[in-house]
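Input chain follows. Return C-alpha coordinates only.
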Amino acid sequence: MAQNKNNNDSSKKPPSVCNFCGKRESEVGPMIEGPDHVYICGSCVELCSSIIKQETRKSSRQRPLFTTIPAPREIKEHLDNYVIGQDAAKKSMSVAVHNHYKRLTHSEVQDTDVEIEKSNVLLIGPTGSGKTLLAKTLARFLDVPFAISDATTLTEAGYVGEDVENVLLRLLQAAEYDLDAAQRGIIYIDEVDKVGKTNQNVSITRDVSGEGVQQSLLKILEGTVANVPPQGGRKHPEQQYLQLDTSQILFICGGTFTGLEEIIKKRLGRQMIGFSAENQPVAESSEETAEFLQQVAPEDLVHCGMIPELIGRLPVITSLAPLDEAALVQILTEPKNALVKQYSKFFDMEQAHLEFTRDGLSAIARKALKRDTGARALRAVTEELMLDLMYELPEHEPNCKYVIDEDIVEGRASLFTARKLPEQKKETA
Protein backbone atom coordinates (compact mmCIF):
# COMPACT_ATOMS: atom_id res chain seq x y z
CA MET A 1 0.00 0.00 0.00
CA ALA A 2 2.79 2.37 0.86
CA GLN A 3 4.46 1.61 -2.44
CA ASN A 4 1.27 2.37 -4.42
CA LYS A 5 0.87 5.63 -2.58
CA ASN A 6 4.39 6.71 -3.51
CA ASN A 7 3.71 5.84 -7.17
CA ASN A 8 0.55 7.99 -7.19
CA ASP A 9 2.43 10.95 -5.67
CA SER A 10 5.22 10.70 -8.22
CA SER A 11 2.70 10.66 -11.11
CA LYS A 12 1.25 14.06 -10.14
CA LYS A 13 2.23 16.85 -12.56
CA PRO A 14 4.34 19.58 -10.93
CA PRO A 15 2.90 23.11 -11.08
CA SER A 16 3.89 25.01 -14.25
CA VAL A 17 6.05 28.10 -13.78
CA CYS A 18 6.75 30.69 -16.50
CA ASN A 19 10.46 30.59 -17.31
CA PHE A 20 10.39 34.31 -18.23
CA CYS A 21 8.56 36.02 -15.36
CA GLY A 22 8.58 33.20 -12.76
CA LYS A 23 4.83 33.33 -12.09
CA ARG A 24 2.78 30.18 -11.53
CA GLU A 25 -0.07 28.95 -13.71
CA SER A 26 -2.54 29.70 -10.94
CA GLU A 27 -1.53 33.38 -11.17
CA VAL A 28 -1.42 33.98 -14.91
CA GLY A 29 -3.64 31.26 -16.41
CA PRO A 30 -2.81 28.66 -19.08
CA MET A 31 0.75 28.53 -20.39
CA ILE A 32 2.47 27.45 -23.59
CA GLU A 33 4.80 24.49 -23.10
CA GLY A 34 7.93 24.15 -25.18
CA PRO A 35 10.65 21.46 -25.43
CA ASP A 36 12.25 20.22 -22.19
CA HIS A 37 9.33 21.50 -20.08
CA VAL A 38 9.93 25.18 -20.83
CA TYR A 39 6.86 27.36 -20.19
CA ILE A 40 5.79 30.88 -21.15
CA CYS A 41 2.64 32.71 -20.02
CA GLY A 42 0.28 34.83 -22.12
CA SER A 43 1.50 38.13 -20.62
CA CYS A 44 5.09 37.36 -21.62
CA VAL A 45 3.96 36.39 -25.12
CA GLU A 46 2.32 39.83 -25.54
CA LEU A 47 5.41 41.53 -24.14
CA CYS A 48 7.67 39.67 -26.58
CA SER A 49 5.36 40.58 -29.45
CA SER A 50 5.51 44.30 -28.61
CA ILE A 51 9.33 44.16 -28.31
CA ILE A 52 9.58 42.56 -31.76
CA LYS A 53 7.28 45.26 -33.23
CA GLN A 54 9.40 48.04 -31.72
CA GLU A 55 12.61 46.50 -33.05
CA THR A 56 11.03 46.10 -36.49
CA ARG A 57 10.02 49.77 -36.50
CA LYS A 58 13.56 50.79 -35.50
CA SER A 59 15.07 48.81 -38.35
CA SER A 60 12.49 50.18 -40.83
CA ARG A 61 13.39 53.75 -39.87
CA GLN A 62 16.92 53.13 -41.08
CA ARG A 63 15.59 52.28 -44.54
CA PRO A 64 14.66 55.05 -46.99
CA LEU A 65 10.99 56.03 -47.28
CA PHE A 66 10.71 54.86 -50.89
CA THR A 67 12.96 52.62 -52.94
CA THR A 68 11.80 54.60 -55.97
CA ILE A 69 9.69 57.76 -55.81
CA PRO A 70 6.73 57.59 -58.22
CA ALA A 71 7.10 60.04 -61.09
CA PRO A 72 4.44 62.77 -61.47
CA ARG A 73 3.11 61.08 -64.60
CA GLU A 74 2.77 57.78 -62.72
CA ILE A 75 0.93 59.48 -59.85
CA LYS A 76 -1.47 61.22 -62.25
CA GLU A 77 -2.18 57.99 -64.13
CA HIS A 78 -3.17 56.37 -60.84
CA LEU A 79 -5.40 59.32 -59.96
CA ASP A 80 -7.07 58.99 -63.38
CA ASN A 81 -8.43 55.60 -62.28
CA TYR A 82 -10.47 57.19 -59.49
CA VAL A 83 -10.93 60.90 -60.25
CA ILE A 84 -12.65 61.95 -63.47
CA GLY A 85 -11.45 65.13 -65.18
CA GLN A 86 -9.67 67.80 -63.12
CA ASP A 87 -6.45 67.31 -65.15
CA ALA A 88 -4.91 70.62 -64.05
CA ALA A 89 -5.46 69.82 -60.36
CA LYS A 90 -4.12 66.28 -60.74
CA LYS A 91 -0.96 67.54 -62.45
CA SER A 92 -0.34 70.13 -59.72
CA MET A 93 -0.93 67.57 -56.99
CA SER A 94 1.32 64.98 -58.67
CA VAL A 95 4.23 67.40 -58.99
CA ALA A 96 3.81 68.72 -55.43
CA VAL A 97 3.66 65.24 -53.89
CA HIS A 98 6.60 63.97 -55.97
CA ASN A 99 8.76 66.94 -54.95
CA HIS A 100 7.74 66.62 -51.30
CA TYR A 101 8.78 62.99 -50.94
CA LYS A 102 11.88 63.50 -53.08
CA ARG A 103 12.83 66.23 -50.61
CA LEU A 104 12.33 63.87 -47.65
CA THR A 105 14.26 61.00 -49.22
CA HIS A 106 17.10 63.28 -50.26
CA SER A 107 17.44 64.73 -46.76
CA GLU A 108 17.52 61.21 -45.24
CA VAL A 109 20.18 59.88 -47.60
CA GLN A 110 22.60 62.81 -47.58
CA ASP A 111 23.06 66.22 -46.06
CA THR A 112 22.89 69.25 -48.31
CA ASP A 113 23.68 72.93 -48.02
CA VAL A 114 20.44 73.85 -49.78
CA GLU A 115 17.31 73.61 -47.60
CA ILE A 116 14.27 72.73 -49.68
CA GLU A 117 11.01 73.91 -48.18
CA LYS A 118 7.89 71.78 -48.41
CA SER A 119 5.04 72.73 -50.70
CA ASN A 120 1.68 72.43 -48.94
CA VAL A 121 -1.33 72.42 -51.26
CA LEU A 122 -4.57 74.41 -51.30
CA LEU A 123 -7.43 72.91 -53.32
CA ILE A 124 -10.24 75.25 -54.37
CA GLY A 125 -13.44 73.93 -55.86
CA PRO A 126 -17.18 73.44 -55.35
CA THR A 127 -18.53 70.72 -53.10
CA GLY A 128 -18.45 67.25 -54.60
CA SER A 129 -15.77 68.08 -57.18
CA GLY A 130 -13.24 65.55 -55.82
CA LYS A 131 -11.01 67.45 -53.37
CA THR A 132 -11.15 64.86 -50.59
CA LEU A 133 -11.03 61.97 -53.06
CA LEU A 134 -7.80 63.33 -54.56
CA ALA A 135 -6.09 63.45 -51.17
CA LYS A 136 -7.36 59.99 -50.13
CA THR A 137 -6.28 58.38 -53.40
CA LEU A 138 -2.82 59.92 -53.14
CA ALA A 139 -2.25 58.63 -49.61
CA ARG A 140 -3.46 55.15 -50.55
CA PHE A 141 -1.20 55.04 -53.60
CA LEU A 142 1.87 56.17 -51.62
CA ASP A 143 0.99 53.89 -48.67
CA VAL A 144 1.53 56.59 -46.06
CA PRO A 145 -0.60 57.46 -42.99
CA PHE A 146 -3.50 59.74 -43.86
CA ALA A 147 -5.91 61.75 -41.72
CA ILE A 148 -8.85 64.03 -42.49
CA SER A 149 -9.89 66.90 -40.25
CA ASP A 150 -12.73 69.39 -40.55
CA ALA A 151 -11.62 72.97 -39.95
CA THR A 152 -15.11 73.98 -38.80
CA THR A 153 -14.69 71.98 -35.56
CA LEU A 154 -11.43 73.73 -34.61
CA THR A 155 -11.22 76.63 -32.18
CA GLU A 156 -8.41 78.66 -30.70
CA ALA A 157 -6.69 77.03 -27.71
CA GLY A 158 -8.58 77.58 -24.47
CA TYR A 159 -12.07 77.69 -26.01
CA VAL A 160 -14.77 75.04 -26.38
CA GLY A 161 -14.02 72.90 -29.43
CA GLU A 162 -11.07 70.98 -30.79
CA ASP A 163 -7.49 72.20 -30.54
CA VAL A 164 -5.36 72.29 -33.67
CA GLU A 165 -3.20 69.55 -32.11
CA ASN A 166 -6.13 67.15 -32.53
CA VAL A 167 -5.44 67.31 -36.27
CA LEU A 168 -2.02 65.79 -35.58
CA LEU A 169 -3.52 63.26 -33.15
CA ARG A 170 -5.68 61.80 -35.92
CA LEU A 171 -2.60 61.28 -38.08
CA LEU A 172 -0.77 59.69 -35.16
CA GLN A 173 -3.68 57.31 -34.62
CA ALA A 174 -3.70 56.41 -38.33
CA ALA A 175 0.01 55.56 -38.00
CA GLU A 176 -0.72 53.38 -34.93
CA TYR A 177 1.26 55.83 -32.78
CA ASP A 178 4.43 55.31 -34.81
CA LEU A 179 5.95 58.80 -34.65
CA ASP A 180 8.35 58.25 -37.53
CA ALA A 181 5.61 57.01 -39.86
CA ALA A 182 3.26 59.83 -38.81
CA GLN A 183 5.91 62.44 -39.60
CA ARG A 184 5.89 61.23 -43.22
CA GLY A 185 2.11 61.21 -43.59
CA ILE A 186 -0.49 63.43 -45.26
CA ILE A 187 -3.13 65.53 -43.49
CA TYR A 188 -6.17 66.85 -45.35
CA ILE A 189 -7.93 69.81 -43.71
CA ASP A 190 -11.38 70.26 -45.22
CA GLU A 191 -13.58 73.38 -45.20
CA VAL A 192 -10.59 75.63 -44.55
CA ASP A 193 -12.51 78.54 -46.08
CA LYS A 194 -14.96 78.36 -43.16
CA VAL A 195 -12.26 79.63 -40.78
CA GLY A 196 -11.90 82.87 -42.72
CA LYS A 197 -12.21 86.13 -40.85
CA THR A 198 -15.87 86.95 -40.30
CA ASN A 199 -15.36 90.49 -41.58
CA GLN A 200 -12.61 92.84 -42.62
CA ASN A 201 -13.25 95.23 -39.74
CA VAL A 202 -11.35 95.17 -36.46
CA SER A 203 -13.54 93.78 -33.67
CA ILE A 204 -13.14 94.02 -29.90
CA THR A 205 -14.24 90.36 -29.51
CA ARG A 206 -12.01 87.40 -30.35
CA ASP A 207 -12.70 85.49 -33.55
CA VAL A 208 -11.89 82.12 -31.91
CA SER A 209 -13.21 79.92 -34.71
CA GLY A 210 -11.99 82.12 -37.58
CA GLU A 211 -8.76 84.09 -37.59
CA GLY A 212 -7.76 82.50 -34.28
CA VAL A 213 -7.73 79.06 -35.90
CA GLN A 214 -5.73 80.37 -38.85
CA GLN A 215 -3.11 81.74 -36.46
CA SER A 216 -2.94 78.36 -34.69
CA LEU A 217 -2.47 76.54 -38.01
CA LEU A 218 0.49 78.67 -39.06
CA LYS A 219 3.18 76.86 -37.05
CA ILE A 220 2.13 73.29 -37.84
CA LEU A 221 1.83 74.09 -41.56
CA GLU A 222 5.29 75.63 -41.67
CA GLY A 223 6.96 73.01 -39.49
CA THR A 224 7.32 72.81 -35.73
CA VAL A 225 7.71 70.25 -32.96
CA ALA A 226 4.18 70.05 -31.57
CA ASN A 227 3.12 68.52 -28.27
CA VAL A 228 0.35 66.05 -29.12
CA PRO A 229 -1.85 64.64 -26.31
CA PRO A 230 -2.15 60.88 -27.04
CA GLN A 231 -5.56 60.71 -25.32
CA GLY A 232 -6.78 63.91 -26.93
CA GLY A 233 -7.77 67.36 -25.75
CA ARG A 234 -8.13 68.78 -22.29
CA LYS A 235 -9.88 65.95 -20.45
CA HIS A 236 -6.60 64.29 -19.40
CA PRO A 237 -4.22 67.06 -18.29
CA GLU A 238 -1.94 64.54 -16.55
CA GLN A 239 -1.05 62.64 -19.74
CA GLN A 240 2.43 62.64 -21.20
CA TYR A 241 2.62 64.55 -24.48
CA LEU A 242 4.17 63.11 -27.62
CA GLN A 243 6.44 65.40 -29.63
CA LEU A 244 5.66 65.33 -33.35
CA ASP A 245 7.76 67.17 -35.95
CA THR A 246 5.43 68.60 -38.60
CA SER A 247 8.15 69.80 -40.97
CA GLN A 248 7.92 66.53 -42.95
CA ILE A 249 4.12 66.23 -42.99
CA LEU A 250 2.38 67.23 -46.22
CA PHE A 251 -0.71 69.37 -45.58
CA ILE A 252 -3.47 69.55 -48.17
CA CYS A 253 -6.21 72.10 -47.45
CA GLY A 254 -9.51 72.23 -49.30
CA GLY A 255 -12.35 74.70 -49.46
CA THR A 256 -15.24 75.82 -51.66
CA PHE A 257 -14.60 79.59 -51.23
CA THR A 258 -18.11 80.58 -52.27
CA GLY A 259 -18.15 83.83 -54.25
CA LEU A 260 -14.46 83.62 -55.13
CA GLU A 261 -15.16 83.81 -58.88
CA GLU A 262 -16.92 87.16 -58.36
CA ILE A 263 -13.85 88.50 -56.57
CA ILE A 264 -11.62 87.27 -59.41
CA LYS A 265 -13.90 88.87 -62.03
CA LYS A 266 -13.80 92.18 -60.20
CA ARG A 267 -10.01 92.05 -60.06
CA LEU A 268 -9.81 91.22 -63.76
CA GLY A 269 -12.12 94.12 -64.58
CA ARG A 270 -14.88 91.95 -66.05
CA GLN A 271 -17.53 92.71 -63.47
CA MET A 272 -20.69 94.14 -65.06
CA ILE A 273 -21.53 97.64 -63.83
CA GLY A 274 -24.82 99.52 -63.86
CA PHE A 275 -28.08 98.56 -65.50
CA SER A 276 -26.42 96.38 -68.15
CA ALA A 277 -25.78 93.74 -65.46
CA GLU A 278 -29.52 93.17 -65.11
CA ASN A 279 -29.79 91.98 -68.70
CA GLN A 280 -26.98 89.45 -68.33
CA PRO A 281 -27.72 85.82 -67.37
CA VAL A 282 -27.02 85.15 -63.72
CA ALA A 283 -25.98 81.54 -64.14
CA GLU A 284 -22.59 80.71 -65.61
CA SER A 285 -21.48 77.52 -67.27
CA SER A 286 -19.08 75.22 -65.45
CA GLU A 287 -16.40 76.01 -68.07
CA GLU A 288 -16.63 79.76 -67.35
CA THR A 289 -16.48 79.20 -63.60
CA ALA A 290 -13.47 76.89 -63.99
CA GLU A 291 -11.75 79.50 -66.18
CA PHE A 292 -12.09 82.14 -63.49
CA LEU A 293 -10.99 79.83 -60.66
CA GLN A 294 -7.81 78.93 -62.55
CA GLN A 295 -6.79 82.60 -62.40
CA VAL A 296 -7.03 82.82 -58.61
CA ALA A 297 -4.38 84.94 -56.90
CA PRO A 298 -3.39 85.15 -53.21
CA GLU A 299 -5.02 88.58 -52.85
CA ASP A 300 -8.34 87.07 -53.93
CA LEU A 301 -8.16 84.64 -51.02
CA VAL A 302 -7.42 87.51 -48.64
CA HIS A 303 -10.73 89.06 -49.69
CA CYS A 304 -12.38 85.74 -48.73
CA GLY A 305 -11.14 86.13 -45.14
CA MET A 306 -7.85 84.21 -45.25
CA ILE A 307 -4.87 85.85 -43.58
CA PRO A 308 -1.81 86.43 -45.81
CA GLU A 309 0.48 84.45 -43.48
CA LEU A 310 -1.61 81.29 -43.95
CA ILE A 311 -1.77 81.70 -47.73
CA GLY A 312 2.01 82.05 -47.78
CA ARG A 313 2.31 78.61 -46.18
CA LEU A 314 0.18 77.07 -48.95
CA PRO A 315 2.33 77.86 -52.01
CA VAL A 316 0.65 75.37 -54.37
CA ILE A 317 -2.83 76.72 -55.15
CA THR A 318 -4.92 74.74 -57.63
CA SER A 319 -8.60 74.78 -58.53
CA LEU A 320 -11.09 72.08 -59.42
CA ALA A 321 -13.78 72.72 -62.01
CA PRO A 322 -17.50 72.22 -61.28
CA LEU A 323 -18.81 68.95 -62.68
CA ASP A 324 -21.17 69.03 -65.65
CA GLU A 325 -23.54 66.32 -66.91
CA ALA A 326 -20.91 64.60 -69.09
CA ALA A 327 -18.46 64.42 -66.17
CA LEU A 328 -21.10 62.93 -63.86
CA VAL A 329 -21.89 60.23 -66.44
CA GLN A 330 -18.18 59.41 -66.59
CA ILE A 331 -18.04 59.21 -62.79
CA LEU A 332 -20.97 56.78 -62.87
CA THR A 333 -19.25 54.42 -65.29
CA GLU A 334 -15.47 54.80 -65.60
CA PRO A 335 -13.66 54.71 -62.21
CA LYS A 336 -12.70 51.40 -60.63
CA ASN A 337 -15.24 52.01 -57.89
CA ALA A 338 -17.94 53.42 -60.20
CA LEU A 339 -21.53 53.09 -58.95
CA VAL A 340 -22.66 51.27 -62.11
CA LYS A 341 -19.92 48.67 -61.64
CA GLN A 342 -20.82 48.24 -57.96
CA TYR A 343 -24.50 47.65 -58.68
CA SER A 344 -23.69 45.30 -61.56
CA LYS A 345 -21.59 43.25 -59.15
CA PHE A 346 -24.50 43.07 -56.69
CA PHE A 347 -26.77 41.77 -59.46
CA ASP A 348 -24.17 39.20 -60.52
CA MET A 349 -24.22 37.87 -56.97
CA GLU A 350 -27.97 37.33 -57.32
CA GLN A 351 -27.55 35.63 -60.74
CA ALA A 352 -29.09 38.60 -62.55
CA HIS A 353 -27.87 41.17 -65.05
CA LEU A 354 -28.17 44.96 -64.74
CA GLU A 355 -27.78 47.40 -67.61
CA PHE A 356 -27.95 51.21 -67.71
CA THR A 357 -28.77 52.85 -71.01
CA ARG A 358 -27.02 56.04 -72.08
CA ASP A 359 -30.15 58.16 -71.66
CA GLY A 360 -30.75 56.57 -68.27
CA LEU A 361 -27.28 57.59 -67.08
CA SER A 362 -27.83 61.12 -68.37
CA ALA A 363 -31.16 61.33 -66.52
CA ILE A 364 -29.43 60.29 -63.26
CA ALA A 365 -26.73 62.93 -63.87
CA ARG A 366 -29.35 65.64 -64.46
CA LYS A 367 -31.13 64.75 -61.24
CA ALA A 368 -27.83 64.90 -59.36
CA LEU A 369 -26.98 68.30 -60.84
CA LYS A 370 -30.21 69.76 -59.45
CA ARG A 371 -29.08 68.92 -55.91
CA ASP A 372 -25.98 71.10 -56.35
CA THR A 373 -23.71 68.82 -54.31
CA GLY A 374 -21.51 67.52 -57.11
CA ALA A 375 -20.64 63.84 -57.36
CA ARG A 376 -21.99 63.17 -53.85
CA ALA A 377 -25.52 63.46 -55.20
CA LEU A 378 -24.98 60.56 -57.62
CA ARG A 379 -25.05 57.93 -54.89
CA ALA A 380 -28.10 59.47 -53.24
CA VAL A 381 -30.05 59.57 -56.52
CA THR A 382 -29.01 56.04 -57.50
CA GLU A 383 -29.77 54.62 -54.05
CA GLU A 384 -33.28 56.09 -54.16
CA LEU A 385 -33.79 54.70 -57.66
CA MET A 386 -32.57 51.18 -56.89
CA LEU A 387 -33.98 50.77 -53.37
CA ASP A 388 -37.19 48.90 -54.23
CA LEU A 389 -35.49 46.68 -56.79
CA MET A 390 -32.63 45.77 -54.43
CA TYR A 391 -35.21 45.03 -51.73
CA GLU A 392 -37.05 42.45 -53.85
CA LEU A 393 -34.17 41.20 -56.01
CA PRO A 394 -33.28 38.10 -53.90
CA GLU A 395 -36.88 36.87 -54.34
CA HIS A 396 -36.94 37.33 -58.11
CA GLU A 397 -36.42 34.60 -60.62
CA PRO A 398 -32.70 34.17 -61.45
CA ASN A 399 -31.09 34.71 -64.84
CA CYS A 400 -33.07 37.89 -65.62
CA LYS A 401 -31.95 41.14 -67.18
CA TYR A 402 -32.96 44.56 -65.83
CA VAL A 403 -32.53 47.66 -68.00
CA ILE A 404 -32.57 51.15 -66.43
CA ASP A 405 -33.49 53.79 -69.01
CA GLU A 406 -34.66 57.41 -68.90
CA ASP A 407 -38.34 56.49 -68.47
CA ILE A 408 -37.54 54.45 -65.35
CA VAL A 409 -35.33 57.20 -63.87
CA GLU A 410 -38.05 59.80 -64.46
CA GLY A 411 -40.71 57.50 -63.03
CA ARG A 412 -42.63 57.03 -66.28
CA ALA A 413 -42.09 53.25 -66.42
CA SER A 414 -41.97 50.35 -63.98
CA LEU A 415 -38.63 49.49 -62.45
CA PHE A 416 -39.44 45.80 -62.37
CA THR A 417 -39.56 45.29 -66.12
CA ALA A 418 -37.24 42.37 -66.80
CA ARG A 419 -36.72 39.77 -69.45
CA LYS A 420 -35.33 36.28 -69.27
CA LEU A 421 -31.77 35.94 -70.44
CA PRO A 422 -31.12 33.23 -73.04
CA GLU A 423 -29.56 30.14 -71.54
CA GLN A 424 -26.01 29.35 -72.55
CA LYS A 425 -25.84 26.26 -74.74
CA LYS A 426 -23.43 23.62 -73.56
CA GLU A 427 -20.72 22.72 -76.02
CA THR A 428 -20.71 19.08 -77.03
CA ALA A 429 -17.59 17.17 -77.81
